[in-house]
């Protein structure tokens, strides 16, 4: 009898598959390998081979709802982007690029800002705090966490957000993804964390595999390898025009339907006195994304941009 499960982890031609509250070691039916490259998060149909040994075979795959390319995961409900405010320094461009990708794909982002205890009263840190408030004003779900002395209520909020979802933790290397995730894992499953390499202003990779962790009750979360750079794969400038949150209030109001909000006459966004209020840094990062796309041949629409 076929039963439905979710792939938690993949090792070569075998996978750990969650079925109910049990994890089975499952091989993939050879005939399927020609048509489907399995991903963590895939919903599959299983035939149990040995209940005592918890072994099974994957006989079919359910259609994928969505797919992330970095990390390679599917059927994701939401992505928790963990961003450090200090050590490593706040990187708005990396954050805004990832937000752009999620908004194009229609996946809900959750923003977690870590290292809040390291902010001082300096003008630079005041600007960082101001940017965090901008994301809140734009309607993003935002949590601010001190990983060294975590506030219980913040993790209670996060736990509610994670309920009944497949959630993926991503972010810059050293931002505290694994440390945050460890608050939900048993000691034997906790992921090793390391001190930040200050000389490089980035952390060393501590997560080497991509997998989903089944938590109680009804929570599936993944920690992924940290990264210091991120490329907008398979996304066009037009995708950004129509999907970035700062442009949504002005959709279909500009003179040209494909307005890039960069230079066009009749651009309502550029002519509105409130469009960039507090969000100038997001717009500047958008301009950098477009410039980056222009440098890559083969991007649809890049030739039409000045």
UniProtKB/TrEMBL annotation:
- Family matches, as InterPro entries: G_CP_dom, P-loop_NTPase, Ribosome_biogen_GTPase_RsgA, RsgA_GTPase_dom
Which residues constitute the signal peptide according to the record? none
Required cofactor(s): Zn(2+)
Q: Name one GO molecular function term.
A: GTPase activity
The entry's keywords: Cytoplasm, GTP-binding, Hydrolase, Metal-binding, Nucleotide-binding, Ribosome biogenesis, RNA-binding, rRNA-binding, Zinc
Q: What is its EC number?
A: 3.6.1.-
The record's subcellular locations are: Cytoplasm
* Database matches in Gene3D superfamilies: P-loop containing nucleotide triphosphate hydrolases, Probable gtpase engc, domain 3
Q: Which Pfam families match?
A: RsgA_GTPase (PF03193)
- What biological-process terms (Gene Ontology) are attached? ribosomal small subunit biogenesis
Q: Name one GO cellular component term.
A: cytoplasm
Q: Where does Zn(2+) bind?
A: 254, 259, 261, 267
How is the co-factor bound, per the entry? Binds 1 zinc ion per subunit.
Residues at which GTP binds = 114-117, 171-179
Name the family. Answer: Belongs to the TRAFAC class YlqF/YawG GTPase family. RsgA subfamily.
On subunit structure and binding partners, the annotation says: Monomer. Associates with 30S ribosomal subunit, binds 16S rRNA.
**Known PANTHER family for this protein?**
SMALL RIBOSOMAL SUBUNIT BIOGENESIS GTPASE RSGA (PTHR32120), SMALL RIBOSOMAL SUBUNIT BIOGENESIS GTPASE RSGA 1, MITOCHONDRIAL-RELATED (PTHR32120:SF11)
Summary of the function given for this chain in its UniProt record: One of several proteins that assist in the late maturation steps of the functional core of the 30S ribosomal subunit. Helps release RbfA from mature subunits. May play a role in the assembly of ribosomal proteins into the subunit. Circularly permuted GTPase that catalyzes slow GTP hydrolysis, GTPase activity is stimulated by the 30S ribosomal subunit.
Q: What is this protein called?
A: Small ribosomal subunit biogenesis GTPase RsgA
Q: Which organism is it from?
A: Entomoplasma freundtii
